[in-house]
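Morning run. Coffee first, then this:
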Amino acid sequence: MYTKIIRIIIAILAVIYLYAFFITPYEPYSHFIPDFRRWQFFLFILQPEFYFNAFSVGGLIVISDKFLPFFVMVLVLLAANGIGGCLILLLRKFDSGLNNFNVWETKVIALMFGLGFYQTLTLAACLCGLSTNGLRAAVCSLVAFGLVCAVWLLIRKRSDNIDSIVMVPREPVALPRLFVCLLFVPAIAALFASGILMSNDYDVLSYHAEGAKEIFLAGGITFAQHNVYMNMPFGAEMNAVIGMTLMGDVIVGESVGKLLIAAMTVCCAFATALFCYRFLPRDVSAVAAPVAALIYLQFPLVNMVSAAGLVDCVFAAYLMLCVYMFAALLRNGNESNYGTAFLCGIFAGLAAACKYTAVPFLILPLVAVAITFEIFYKVKRFRVVLPMVVGIILGGGLWYIKNAILIGNPFFPLLASVFPVESWDAVTDQRWRTAHAPHSFSLSTLWQAIRQVVINQPLLDPLLIPLAILGAAAVVRKKFTDNLRTKIVMTGIVCYVVFFFAAWFMFTHRLDRFWLPIVPLMAILAGTGTADVVKCYGRKHGKYTLAVLLVVACIYTTLINTSPMPGKNVAYLVPLNSQTRLTEWTRKVNDMKRDGELAIIGEASVFDIKGKIRYATCWNKPPLEDILTEPDATKVTKELKKQKITLIMVHWGEIKRFRSPNNYGFSNFPTPQIFQRLTKNGVLEQVELGEESKQSGVELYRVRKYTEHD
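And here it is:
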């Protein structure tokens, strides 16, 4: 009777959540389809032209130019696996615990370790101040060495039995393997098909991809006065730098970098499945493993962020491997675990090399728990903590050392009051802290944040939240498992998920991307919850219920992941270097012949602009501010000529957006009156642009040639 009541309650709650989920308005489409609801995505199955028109803009169909980036991505992955595999073999000599990992676990760990190794060495090469050709030679040599290592691993005699172990589920899977594999195809295809395309995301075009482009063209890294974001950890962006140096082209190289990020997302999903097989009870893992990997891969927010080239999914992958290593430490107990602890620290450091948030969200709690772990198990002091700290420093410390040496602030632009920087004044710092800090801690704000995470976020998976809650409830039950260490690992994951969301609410400006790194662990809980549901309803009925839920969720997420939306490029059949995604004014300035620099005021998403440019983000001093505010027109003209400025573009629409209430703010310098005066005085002449540019508030000026008679 009690079991039946539980089943009924679960079914009712599931129906209520799914009903609320699918009737929730889909915000990205609200501006052109009023009152559009999530369930209406299923109607697009009957309207394939909606998708095809977005896949092939203007009727262009070209796919041949996408083969080379895929090939280069595979080469880099093979090289990374070779380097990582050799390093794992070396660590095994100091850590018997690493021999407990099977072949699939070893390959995933080696691949992620190798990619992180390449990112760190690419940074080291950039800090050497090499030219573009020198940087290319260094990266090519590293990749070639990695390929040699991969070949050596392939042909060597495999004396240790670890390499012959094949991972198989401990229990029969609840669903046919072919059925489960087919469910993965749409998510992986959408991820890589979007990942190879150039992003339309503002942040990517203004500093993720643009920063990689500037590093590649300069052949090194210095302090960027014009783009504050380029002075933050840029570990994930090194994938694009590697791609650009190998290809010798920024567009194709950026595609390679984005494909590497997509591959890391797939590795992260695979790691969630392996985690379930290793750490969950036998009657749970066979169901939980494929479901956890599938939910993570098809999760729309993961798909969009990864395909866009943002770094949060790279952070998620390293966080997942860090938790994996730490769980292995807990399971191994008092064994010598120097290598496992070192790898745990390496992955935490690599996460911190992607985003500052990894320091408070991952490294600090990791070290605190590691110290507690040593005290609890009464092992030799620093057996775990010391190699872990060494790994953290080697994995991500170089980015912080770089900032400390260049500007004296390892966390720039954070902690400006502790480590002041001359170019970062108190007013700008206050603007930054106001924009990036939470604005309210009221109960209503907390409720809004919970609703946003649980149901209102447009790019949610319908299964993740309810199944993760069920999984957390299953973990804390006494009958979950008799294995104490497994119980500790899974309870720790539940506590860490709660901690992560609490830290996200308390210390960030609550962008949804900032809680994305915890989704792999939520997917593991969702897989655990799925196994609990199957067990509750019995193998037969539970299997059919699970199959229906997975198919419905897969159809919905595939429609979301391949749908056009603001900031997302789904022109799968369009050439990589197509001009169709560019703005009108970008095409205009790219087509203009100029023998000097283009100065851009107000706009920072400048990746697609060719030639020499001068720009700044809203946090930095706008270019030409000191020159254009000079009242003497002759002096202005002479100075512009001296600095070889031939074109000036002003984006009033962006300036207005930044100056709007509750936005980031912008300098008071650019005003229409300044440019009207300079035009009237003959310093500038306005270049006619199209209607699209006028509506966006873009104005383009040509600097008149200076002569002694002017």
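Strands lie at 597-601, 613-614, 645-651, 684-687, 698-703. Good start to the day.
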